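Margin note from the TA: students keep mixing up input and output lines. Inputs are the sequences; the output is the structure of the whole complex. Example:
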Amino acid sequence: MAEADASLHAEALAQLEAGRPLPALVAWRELLLAEAPAVQAHLMAAAAALSADAIAPLRRLAIALAEALLQSEPGASEVAALGALLRGWGELCQAEVPARALQHFERAWACGPDPQLRQQLAQLYRRLGYGEGAWELGAPAPQTEPWPQQPCQAQACTACAPQPAANRELGLTLLPQGRLWVQRHTNPWHTSHGLAVLDRHGALQPAHCRAYPQPWPRCPHRAQFEAQALAMLPWGARGLPPLQRLSGPVLAVAELSAEHYFHWQGELLPRLGRLWPLVQQQWPALRLWHNGGNTPWVAESLARLGITPEQTVAGPAHIEAELLLVPSFAADAGVLAPANVGWLQAFWAVEPRPAQGRLWLPRCTTPRRSVLGEDAWLQVGVAQPLPHGSVADQLQHLAAASAVIAPHGAGMVNLLAAAPGSAVIELVNPAYTPPYFDSLMQQRGLQHRRLHAAATPLPLQEWLYEGPLAWPIDLRPGASPAAEALAACP
Amino acid sequence: MATPELALVMPFRNAAPWLASTLVALRHDSQVPVELVAIDDGSSDGGAELLLQLCRHWPAGSWRLLDGGGRGVSAARNQGVAASSAPLIAFVDADDRPLPGRLALPLEALQQHPGLDHVHGGWLRCPTDGAAPQAVRPWLEGAAFDWTSVIEYKAVLPSAWTLRRSAFERVGGFDEGLSHAEDVDLLARLAASGSQGAWIPELLVRYRVHPASASARLEEHLQGLMEVLERQLQGLEPALAPWAAEQRYGTLTWGCWQAWQADQLQLALALLQQALPACPYPLPRRRVHLLEVFARSSRRVGAPWDRQALQTSPFWKAACGLIEHG
């Protein structure tokens, strides 16, 4: 993204925050027109995915606003649309990311205050610490949860990320009448963003609790993050479903975002698999509780482990077990520990074999994280797409490839099966390059290259997407270094 | 007589009504051997003669009176320090009344912690209009002595402050060109030079708060404070620009509260107007922030606080008009 674009965008935001939406929209129109082909590609991809989009109404607003600005100068209706869009984004993240919600609501204010917005702002200001000042906008609720402080960018920070992944000793804690609950996002995706384990007296067990945001293992602010997680978790208990009491012994394995393939495969499954046979031997009536959901990959994994549906407690977010057995975390959050990778390779029976051919590892099939221009590269045969199939099948295909091209995504955890020495080209949005797979590739001895796709145009970054994680990987031919490298592939 | 460990530097100008009680309090403080250096900074109320009378029975060599020539409090304090020889320096303004421990506690702290360059106690804010005294304990609000904290809190009162001579001299003492906020300036320069400070978590002095007698005086004081702040914020790296903007805005809105508190409403609105062009907050937060500043500042000094009365006042309407429409 050109510096001039960033500067114009910052200027537009300043105008908006000062209560002047029209000049802001004029500046954004200029930005959209300057990158019209990229903007159109993003809008088309978002429009095509609307039928399966959990936040389709909001996305429609963004598409309509961008299209209107591409067509003509902004007026009152665009100001109103911008206000509605910003309020929508604010409401989406109000519960879990109040700082972002506040930013959206404060910007929406310029587009026309309304009583609901006043109240939402009053509440957030009260939570931020303006206990008296908040009354200027409305009557805030008397008790509000603490404002989460983020001393650094957590796992978005690259300074302390590069380091070898470390194992942690895998142990088991027995809690008679132990309790566990999972705090799920209030947004439509409902993924786990807080995990709490409590003893029979209701005391949190810090070693078994986790909440977002999570820092890297050597983050200097780690203690602050941990303390904050423990302070915030009890507030998450307010919206829990009724407690489900379970008889007998229950092995409870929870991970943050375990509903996503990466966290299931890379974190939860090995933690479960490494312990299940041993624990079941001691407690034959053992049942399993986990927060990974019921996707095909979960079913396949459990079946392979020999865990039947009857042995599984289906998905309550709030349980108490006669005897709760909780394994310790096998690694720091988001880290693919060598012991876990080694177990997965044995579990999925990954066999070394002569590697040949170039494989394209597609991003997950959800519309949330699209890859623009992907078809163009597959059509010219830059690589063979990985065939759909079971996890076991996909791993076997990967084991047989001499090179893998992978838009960054959860499926890259399957590189645990890649042939040692094979090449991996990781395609990333330049604003989202988390090193989640670096340690895995080092462990496997893979030749890793990371290539930047085209940047997501401003202001679509903020209008059309939840955040950098959801920004598409734009591989349109000729639009980025990644596309140039793909074009040069023999 | 051997040089005492501690010199007490006391400038005064037209402080005759309070000199006796201040000196009595000092005598009663403890057995701390102290070298008193009083500087008459241009009194016309016979204060110098009174001091001579009050000290005439003090041991010879334990006190002296200098003529400051009316050059201002910074010059008077520097003059007092230069005329003394003790390695530690305590300040007291003649109209403030030291509390027990004012001299003994800092002396003990600086003797026990050789790495400390200066120590500061709390103070009892005593309005002369009869309002209840209010304890000021800046350490409870998070104030510290690193440069960032000094700029954010500006928590300093010379009458509760004790320094090593070496630290004071290293940064050149008080800036005699400043007639306001010279104490904040010195504290900031000490912090910037890496000096180490610490709180003595006790109230050390009764700080007499005179009513802001004239609009011009309060305005001068606030603009003087802004000048010191600007001097400190100049040349900061660009990454700190948002923080610097918050400091400027925070200081001016606090000044707005001060003027409102002193019933100088036009000055309050003028200060708000001065603050707004560089306001770092989005539009809806500006009123919220201002109301919060007023509430916290009032509570800090124990002033009565009635949010609804403020919000329904013509002043608040005018302030909100400025915020909304510039």
